[in-house]
Structures are given as C-alpha cells and as structure tokens.
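User: Please predict structures.

Assistant: First:
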Amino acid sequence: MSNVLENRPATTERPANRDALSPTLTAEIHRHLRYVLGTTPAEATPDEMLAAASHAVRNLVVDRMLVTRTRQAQSCRVAHVALTHEIGPRLAHDVHAMGLHHALDDALREVGLTLQDVARLEVPPALGTGDPADASLALLESLATHDLPATGYGLRFDYGLFRQVLVDGRQVEVPATWDAERSPWLIRRAAEAVWVPVFGRVAAQPPAPGEPASPWVDWQLLVGVPWDLPIVGHGGRTVQRLRLFSARADVDQDVTAFAPGDFTAAVRERLARESISKVVYPDDGSLEGEELRLLQA
C-alpha cells in the first residue's frame, strides 16, 4: 500500500475560489439558523452558530462525497476495519482540507464572528485514543487524498472516552457524552441496517428431514444501524466515508417479550444488547465485560 501511495499524486485542487464560496456559505448558515434552529444570526447562541457553520460545510462535503461515489462506482474498494477511530474536530479539519477556511471565515465575519471563534467550540467525539485509533483515521484520510476508493468501518459509540471531573474535591471519571444523534457530521443510514445473529448454542438432537444435524438454536439478533462520516482528502476532490455501526436490539424480539406482559424483561434485554455500542472501552474485569468486548470485536 505504501508504494501505491508514494507513486500516486495527491489531489490538491481547490473546490472553488474564495469569493464564490463566501456567499454560498453565508446563505447556508442563515438558512440553517432560520429553518432548522428557528433563530437569526443576531439571536443565535455560540453553539447554534457552530451547528449552522458545521452544516454549511457538511453540505459542500456531502456534494463531494456523492461525486466521489459516482466516479469510483466501478472500482475495487479498500475496506479498513478498526474498533476505534480518533476522529478529532471535523470543522477545522474539513474546511482546511477543502480550502474553505478563508471563505468560511469571511462568512462568519459578516455576523461578527471568526472561524477560530466557532471552531474552538466543537467537542470532538472521543471514539478512540492512542496510536491505533489515530493511525486508522490517518490511513483513511491518506487514501482519500490519493483518490483511492476506500471505506472505513467501526462502531458508533454513544459515550466517548472518560472525562475527569471534581466531585467533593475528589477526581472522578465519568463517560463523555458527545450527542451523536445531533452530530452534523454523521449521516444516518437506517435503510441499510444489517442483522447480526449472536449467542446461541448447537443442539445435539436427531435431525428432522431437511434440517441440519446440529442446528444452532436460542440465538438472538442484533441490528447494526450504520452512520456515515465523510472523510475528506487533502484538496477536497475526494471524500470517502467511515461507516460506524450502532447496536440496536431486534424490535420483533422485544415485542415477543412485551406481548405476554413481561415489559421489564424486554427493557432489560434491549439495554443489554444495545450496550455493545455504548462505551468505547468497557471494563473487562468481569465475565460480562469480557463478553461485551468480544461482541464489540
């Protein structure tokens, strides 16, 4: 792979010039504030301005992602699978990768802000740490930069890495919630959900006609709901995707448990199955924790 990357020139073209993009970004920011958040630039909070600016950039990124998908539709693809990805702040990265930083800064200055003012408000999703997680995203960005068809895969955790807070003068670690449901960078693909059978056992019983000799019984179904995160290559010409799956319980199984009135059991089972994508690094000091880590992998 390294030789391919070295011999293939990176794409460094800019999507468009600064003067042409500033009005576009300004219009997108105003549109999101008015029609999605129900506010105006004069009344918007800093977090609302961050959301509007992020969605304005995201719209341009998605345009590039769809063009990339069409251009590479007939190509063989690299599939990169990793449990964690150190995503980092997307706004600052994407505007620089696409050459939009000056245009977005101009658009924000019209409402009395700067790109730096808004970008520093972004809380990155802490979905991994260390060399493996950092290298995973760097690889996907490099593949996009060199216009190589690739898709990354991982888990979309509800809670990121632990953050430290002080409680009664003592340091306490609590899960870092990053509000994945409202992230401007993730695109939910519910129609492309996948069903994964887990657990179960092999039944030692005489086979019925046409049935396997040792059937797999008492299994459960998990639903993996994909969310796509656009990965922008340097220059902005190529935008690949990182597909992150969130674990959801199978609705039919929940209904079966609820029908006879066992609502508590249905909720308990649902929470247990959906815990797979709750926390990045669960405690594996118990049998339950080891089982959860195995299901994540």
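Second:
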Amino acid sequence: LVVNPHGIFHLLTYREVIEVDRFWAIGSGADVALGAMHALYDRLDDPLEIARAGAQAAAELEITCGPPVEAESVDLLA
C-alpha cells in the first residue's frame, strides 16, 4: 500500500496498481473489514477510527484474524 498526497494505491504482484478511492483492506479478514469500514465511512470523520473499527471487526469475526489491533496515524505533510 502506498499513501501519498496524490492518493492511496494498492500495488499487486504483477506490477498492477489499483487506486483506492476511500478505504482498503487486505488479508483473510478483508471482506469483514471492508464491510465494517463501509458502514462507518459516512458517519465518522476520523480515518484512524474507521480503520481501527475495520480491523477490530475482522479480528472478532474472522477465525484466522485476532487481536490485538494496533493503529497509528502519520502526518504526511510533516
């Protein structure tokens, strides 16, 4: 995953690049995480809170995922 002032980009094995317009998840809990983030996206303003909720949902509902969830925010303009 590449995040910069131009956007969010998911890089794949064969040099494919997918531009992400709102949020993204990868791994075995991706479907659960994406569903949780979709449900919260228009209701919450904090991207870190949305991402954390997606990861927590995956950790709780997907058997191959688990806690703890650790999330950090980085200021890209610093």
